[in-house]
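Per reviewer request, we include the raw input and output of the structure prediction for the construct analysed in the revised manuscript.
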Amino acid sequence: MDSSLPILSLSAAAVASAAAAFPKLQARLALSRAKHRSLSGHSKMSKIVARLVPHYEFDIDGFFASDGAPADIATQRQDAFFRLAGLFEARYAKGRQMTAEAAERISDLQFTETYRVPFQYSRLVREKLGTSTFMQSSAGVTVTDVDGNLFYDLTGSYGVNIFGNDFYKECITEAEKRARALGPVLGPYHPVITENVKRLCEISGLDEVSFHMSGTEAVMQAVRLARYHTKRTHLVRFAGAYHGWWGDVQPGVGNPVSPHETYTLADMSERTLHVLRTRKDIACVLVNPLQALHPNANAPGDSALVDSSRRGTFDRTAYTEWLAKLREVCTERCIVLIFDEVFVGFRLAARGAQEYFGIRADMVTYGKSLAGGLPVGVVCGRKDLMRRFRDDRPADVCFARGTFNSHPYVMTAMDEFLSRLASPNFNAVYQGLDETWNGRASALNTRLADGDLPVRVSNISSIWMVQYTEPSRYNWMLQYYLRAEGLALSWVGTGRLIFSLNYTDADFSEVADRFVAAAEKMKRDGWWWHDAALTNKNIKRRILKEMLRKRLGRAEH
């Protein structure tokens, strides 16, 4: 009997240890289930996969028949490709030369030129379909390149251009006049800053303001302050959402260091709400309202167009309901809810996404358009969250400064922007905004459907993305046909079309005509050939086999 006591004691200890570990295991399981079931929700796995993907490229024959197209279709595509290449060479001669020379010493340009299309096709596209990176002028809704080619501007200056290029020219011109007396004196504030702060507090519905040099910096400061005041470590971001390029908000591919205090969870998920309700280490939740167009999906660049599975569907009611649930949970758990409106701020409504969705955040970040076309980042927040020091502990501070924070020229440009935004006449631009842009998207989709063209658009107001209705490995070619028709796109191609709000019906009609013409030519040139065996699943399987053969040294391309 005595000899069994140690065994019983050990058993009891094991049971106690297991019982203590069980809640942790439950919490870990809940966290894993809340992640989106894709690589975008699993940052560590995405980096592992990225390291395993081998580089390969098609030879001239494989390039035009990588989907298994018959020889006549491949020849048709090849002829069209080199015909388009000849057009680009003649039309963009000066700009292409300048771009090639600049790319020798500008690393950003090397990156963007390389990642316009899937890597298997990239080299030949760069050589033959290079476009001009250089523009010399803008007017209305158009831009003109250094070769004198006129384009309808669908780039939106990465989201800056909300009200049209002329609007921002005026803001900058008037700002320069007003800031000239003080000049680039840094440290002291230009007097105009007081009015800017007042208006920003009114727009955001929050108490205090912090100025920064970029949207990325604004988000960094908001997260830092949230951690400082909650005394918690982790931030929550949603799979696919972009919040700048700094480490904590860009886990996975693109970040050499794996953030250890970031949870990447699924958007619009009850499992995510459960994690927020049950964990004690979450300081803040970051929301980029642009994700409402493509929840849980990365920014839709054409370099990721390996098939036709890209989809975007905006349901304002559903996303509003999701944000309301998120707001409720964050309030309940004292988690700081941060709206990152760097991209969408002032595009959806005069008071931003908070007004558009009817949800009040604890902190809001702005950037892009706010400074009238000049670089800026802004944090607006509750008074208790914006304080950077503690009265009772003078050494306990949350430090953030910047040499160019509150630059006089930026502040006067911001005042010009905000003054115009507050004008009743100017504010009329927001009346019926969704109806206008939803109607334009619907009209274009009708024309595309009537023409039996396998391409559609989806949108959140004036921010659009292009998606495809039939399986294809060559959807990325559409960007070059669009450019040939005089439509200016950003380096991500058809993934994001950004219209300024000064587009008239006549302007849009011209864009729609050119868009349809580009799609018709692309179809006529054989790029959208397919048969019953060509499905998105089979395309992905084909690519996987190509990669495996390359890894195993069994393929030559």
